[in-house]
Amino acid sequence: MGAGVSSTNKAEKDGGGSISSSSRDSRPGLGDFPESCISSLFMNLDPPDICKLARVNRAFHRASSADFVWESKLPPSYKFLANKVLGEENIATMTKKEIYAKLCLPNRFDGGTKEVWLDKCSGQVCLFMSSKSLKITGIDDRRYWNYIPTEESRFQSVAYLQQMWWVEVVGELEFEFPVGSYSLVFRLQLGKASKRLGRRVCNVDQVHGWDIKPVRFQLSTSDGQSSLSECYLRGPGEWVYYNVGDFVVEKPKEPINIKFSLAQIDCTHTKGGLCVDSAIICPTEFKERLKQS
Question: What domains are defined for the chain?
């Protein structure tokens, strides 16, 4: 009789509100949420978090691939960038997630002289222009300038000045940037670096003239922004990032033309021993990262 009462009480508990094993199994789980709801949630998350949650289960994985999720992470000007580095034909066969992933990787264009990618967190553009994409006075005369190979440049070579009276490096770019604040900097070094017995050494024998007069940096944009500054080149044997100027992009899907330069054209003395690696356009808040790198 005791056993009968016990089993009856157990049955009553199971039917009267306590959770039985069968009812536990029938409760909704994460995999039961509609994919459309999960995708809508993902639109409010950063891309790294979306990728983490995509590992939870199959429903989350499928929801994380929705085109409208990744289109919300792409800047309004992404089609300009995608056409430039991926090509219109390739874009037509790619999902928005694939386009986003590809644009977040460094992509070369203009014959490999420029490199661009999309920052995952800010959605802004980072762009590098090699010395070969810049107009350098006297670059075709081997008495003054040479391109020298080096592993210290992402483009595997830099322009090296031996000696010259008139030094001028000019760049121009027309591009559609996502809305935001950007900085343009030159990456320069006094001296020619090489490796000897596995160690980095820098020859500074030809470095001269940069302590007499400062270098002038200029920047102007097609929408009227401009910047002008002067400073002496410093730190022989080290790569230094020199800020040319800042500019703000307020209108998406509109190309902006940028002209910039560095010049030391005082012909009372010669200048030499300068390496020009690249010009860089990056979100203004990234300038400190460049210095640390």
Answer: 114-292 (2.60.120.260)
161 and 145 in contact (C-beta within 8 Å)? yes
Task: Assess contact for 125 and 177: CB atoms under 8 A.
Answer: yes
Phi, psi (rounded to 5 degrees) for 175: -155, 155
Question: Token pair of 29, please?
Answer: 């789980």
Answer for the pair 41, 48: CB distance below 8 angstroms, yes or no: no
Cβ 171 vs Cβ 131: under 8 Å: no
Q: How far apart are CA 119 and CA 105, in angstroms?
A: 9
**Residues sharing a CB contact under 8 Å with residue 43, sequence separation 6 or more, in sequence order:** 68, 69, 72
Which pTM does this prediction carry? 0.83
Chain segment 76-110, per-residue pLDDT in tens: 889 999 999 998 888 889 999 999 999 999 999 99
What is the model's pLDDT at position 192?
94
Extract the tokens encoding 20. 């039985």
Where do we find the tokens 């005791």? 2
Contacts of 95 (CB under 8 A, 6+ apart): 65, 67, 70
Q: Are 201 and 194 in contact (CB under 8 A)?
A: yes
Pairing assessment for the beta strands 215-221 and 256-264 based on DSSP bridges = antiparallel
- Which pLDDT band, with edges at 50, 70 and 90, does 1 fall under? very low
d(CA 280, CA 275): 15
- Name the amino acid, one letter, at 284: T
Measured CA angle at 240 (ends 149, 197), to 5 deg: 45
C-alpha to C-alpha distance for 44 and 21, rounded to whole angstroms? 36
